[in-house]
Structures
1.
Amino acid sequence: MRDNEFEFIRGLVYERSRINLGQDKRELVSTRLGKRLRATNSPSLGDYCRLLQSPGAEEELGNLIDVISTNHTFFFREQAHFDFMRDTALPALTARLRNERWPRIQIWSAASSSGEEAYSIAITLATHLPQTPWHIEGTDISHRILAAAKRAVYNEDTARNLPDSVVRNHFQRGFGPQEGQIRVRPALRERVNFSHLNLLKGEPAFREPFQIIFCRNVMIYFDRPTQQELIARLTRRLVPGGYLFVGHSESLTSINHTLCSIRPAIYQRPLGS
Ligand SMILES: C[S@@+](CC[C@H](N)C(=O)[O-])C[C@H]1O[C@@H](n2cnc3c(N)ncnc32)[C@H](O)[C@@H]1O
């Protein structure tokens, strides 16, 4: 990959998603772009870069972000967050529900990838808050991955670490041509909504604030000013006393913010702020 091609792709990806591709990502970019060269019948990377500059390249720009962004995720990733939610956050928040006149507990999975995070939250709420109204929003920049999240069909292997009772209660097993696949049951699916959102562009159309936001394993791809902007945006969407969960490798120590750090990778908007 030539320097000018890498710089062009790097600039476009930053402008579109704010994902910051360092020089160490050159090899990765080159491998991932191979797929797009084949899909668009571009004989060389130079041709592909020209295609991206042509009028009507909008759809291909989306495909570019899709192949560059890393969608790796799994059910109950970073279990400590789900334990904290069950033992501390949900009891504190449900106790406030009536006084605050919140219509329901609202949780946002703000870089949801293929939905495992949002459905893990849903399973936790269905299990521990059977009588409380709740709703989950999942958003991501990738249209392709959002389609998978809405379908909610997963390989059985992805659930191998889940207790049998969770699989039985919350998933349907496929048979015939769907053998080896599981699908989240409709009762959960209908309480989780997925929509497209670039976290750094425009304002999300949510009307209600959130009691909990999961924004995990996406900030690592952003530079420091972008991380700071993102945390300010998320903070505005939290109720006072609401919680923000970030990935365990994503500390907020080097950026300015107004949140209280209460556990590793768990932050709280101060009450009264
Ligand atoms: C590694 S996955 C994290 C999934 C899940 N939160 C977890 O921790 O398992 C990162 C996700 O962030 C999404 N993403 C990257 N840049 C984004 C942006 N600017 N706005 C919204 N989503 C973005 C990617 O498409 C990808 O699905």
Note: The chain has a mean pLDDT of 95.
2.
Amino acid sequence: MELYDPLIEKAERLFGSSVPKKFAYDPSRAWDDAGGNQLVMMREAAYELGGDNKPAVNYACVSSNNYVDKDEIWVYGRDLGEIKGSVPFARIVLVKVDSLKGEGEEDTEPVYRAIQDIDFVKYHVYPKGYMVRSSSDSHREQVRVSKEAVRKGISFEQVGNLYISQYKKDPNVLAVRVIFVTADDADYAEMKKDAKMIRDITRTLSKILEGMATDCGSCSLKEICDEVEGLRELHFGKESKEFDL
Ligand code: SF4
């Protein structure tokens, strides 16, 4: 069962026509973490990723299949040192996880918890001079970057290394690709739709966990279960004893 695989497979087509710069994970090159929430005032800001109402999308997808085989940072478009004003922005995270065992409704819990833990990582990364503002309702992740951080040479490679070091604290995580996109020709609208779909899948898992009714005909989640292969099997624990994300 691969709930998010169709979204992972299409993701690369959305990032624009440029060839991405790729960086291997190197924790010694991680940007400094401020250790907690920080405030970058407008007068201290060099620019905003997703500022001036430009797109600013974020989502994370998990799979036990081999889409991601090593820890890497990919950058499509301008890097942080090359940006002069507000730009469209996306940060997409693809995570390879170990298979999670389960054989019925009661075993939805480890699957759901693993996804939640991975998603919550974004609330525990505080790159210094890189103030993140997230909205889970609109799937936005807007970032205000300070002049001082730019002066000190902040780059997506360093910020990505910091994110990956945090993801790798989760024992379910085998490999992570953090993708930063600022390319003008990327399809941010489609990325936003996918972010919504991912949230809907995760919410459906949550509802299943709550022990909701099992009549698909009258269930408010029927539309998402019709669209996403594997959710119905996960609810009713059919056929397989092992649920692969
Ligand atoms: S539509 Fe059916 S499978 Fe999906 S959550 Fe509702 S009851 Fe479960």
Note: Residues 149 and 185 are 27 Å apart (CA to CA).
